[in-house]
Amino acid sequence: MNKLILDGKAVAQEIKSNLKKRVESLTEKGIVPCLATILVGDNPSSETYVRMKGNACEKIGIKSIRIQLPKDIQTEELIDAIQELNNDDAVHGILLQHPVPSHIDERKAFEAINLKKDVDGVTSAGYGQTALGFGEYPSCTPAAILNILKYYQITIEGKQAVVVGRSPILGKPVSALLLNENATVTTCHSKTANLPDILKQADIVVAAIGKPKFIQGDWLKDGCIVLDAGYNKGNIGDVDYESCYNVASAITPVPGGVGPVTIATLLKHTVDSAEKTLT
Amino acid sequence: MNKLILDGKAVAQEIKSNLKKRVESLTEKGIVPCLATILVGDNPSSETYVRMKGNACEKIGIKSIRIQLPKDIQTEELIDAIQELNNDDAVHGILLQHPVPSHIDERKAFEAINLKKDVDGVTSAGYGQTALGFGEYPSCTPAAILNILKYYQITIEGKQAVVVGRSPILGKPVSALLLNENATVTTCHSKTANLPDILKQADIVVAAIGKPKFIQGDWLKDGCIVLDAGYNKGNIGDVDYESCYNVASAITPVPGGVGPVTIATLLKHTVDSAEKTLT
């Protein structure tokens, strides 16, 4: 069987290909696209993500602001910081790095982000628009997964897609996006009784659980497409790559699969948002 | 096998049981709960629904206003009418009767409804909140289906639910509500390749297609639960009742199944909304 490694870097490259030009054109008009990232506490993985995003911004001329808040901050103080960015016309995208410390009401904080600057689709309003088919900024990882499928011209319509995970910024929106592309979508989670049986039916599998090497090759249908949105400690995905590789016809590696496309999508959304201030 | 006819009138009765008292209490405080229904054109089925809803309001003391607009009205005029109701403090719920004539941008009109008065959960913001688990007014038919399952103490968690249909006010939100109750949910639609095979796995089947007698008994698993949200011309549901009855362990009739619970849910949402003006 033809085996395809879905190369996220190639997809990211295509997404980024015209961004630099668009940023230049905006900058000439006096608008420097700007992404503000809020990091609460000092989680080392979050630090890494935020730094990677900042570097990626810099490379194409997007300004990145990093707001670092102490881990013992209260929800209201975090919301004040978000409001300040909402009101700052020089900021086009706001990203609150997930997860925040557990004493903070993350949902309340997400909801405080102005929809126009919600470039990672974390607000319920943004999610609702995405699910109903007219969202401008779907969450970046779900959008990245769709971008990979489209780049590799993998048919989605009429296929059975199984999404494992149902988080508000990953499992739910990727299910919605696949449904809107005419897949028949099953969303599974920790209470799913018979996950391997369900996965055995899937033409397209999205792993979004947050458990390293969780999905096993012998749960999958021969020739299926595997998209691994997991990114666990030590650069390990949610699928057991070796066993899944053997069964799948196409699979994303970790790292180098969904991750780079997520970042490219975030950059694109930020530039989109900056361009909208022109009109 | 024990065969259960899921009696929507009994469920509706329970939902309505304390509403009259709540309406009286509000009325004593000078607040008469009020539902405004907008009807565009003269579709006879829509006329019937609106009249049924009006009568149901009257019976428990909810004021109902009916705004009748000509079928050749433009989207912007419809939105003006919605805005007027948004701004009217005496109106607690706004219902735009679906469908509107095809030249009208129904989505744009739905989106104009103030979230606080969106008692049928038609806005994308309302949908987003429902799907993320904190919506106050999920669409009434999806909420009705959940109410029926709960009234009859049918376990949802861990079950495989298959929803046939993906409309923004029916298939999508009922999928979301079942997922939030820990079902494993598959959403099917016109592009689904192998519907009978998928239905054969389902413990809970929701029919929301709008095609009379579409779902056949021999597509279903023995002992499944069938919820028929269809309401086609001549009081005919989306499931072929006779053949499905034979296979199911529980089934909603049409009429007398989901319909009455939908109306009771609408009344409850209107009273909920009126009560919120007190605080």
Assembly status: homodimer
Radius of gyration of chain A: 19 Å
Quote the average pLDDT of chain A.
97
Spatial order of the strands forming the largest sheet of chain A: 1-9-8-7-5-6
Find the CATH topology of the largest domain in chain A. Rossmann fold
Tell me about this structure.
The structure is a homodimer of 279-residue chains. Chain A has helices at 8-16, 19-28, 44-60, 75-86, 106-111, 124-131, 140-151, 171-180, 195-199, 241-247, 258-276; strands at 4-5, 34-40, 63-69, 93-96, 160-164, 184-188, 204-207, 225-228, 250-251. By secondary structure, chain A is an alpha/beta fold. In chain A, α1 (8-16) runs parallel beside α11 (258-276) and α3 crosses α11 (258-276). Chain A has two domains: 30-114, Leucine Dehydrogenase, chain A, domain 1 (Rossmann fold); 139-259, 3-Layer(aba) Sandwich (Rossmann fold), CATH 3.40.50.720. The model of chain A has no long low-confidence stretch (mean pLDDT 97). Chain A has eleven helices and nine strands. In chain A, β8, α10 (241-247) and β9 (250-251) form a beta-alpha-beta unit. At the A-B interface, α6, α8 and β6 of A face α6, α8 and β6 of B.
Overview in brief:
The structure is a homodimer of 279-residue chains. With 279 residues, chain A is α/β, with parallel strands linked by helices.
Q: What brief labels describe this structure?
A:
homodimer; alpha/beta; Rossmann fold; 2 domains; 11 helices; THF_DH/CycHdrlase_cat_dom (chains A, B); THF_DH/CycHdrlase_NAD-bd_dom (chains A, B); methenyltetrahydrofolate cyclohydrolase activity (chains A, B); methionine biosynthesis (chains A, B)
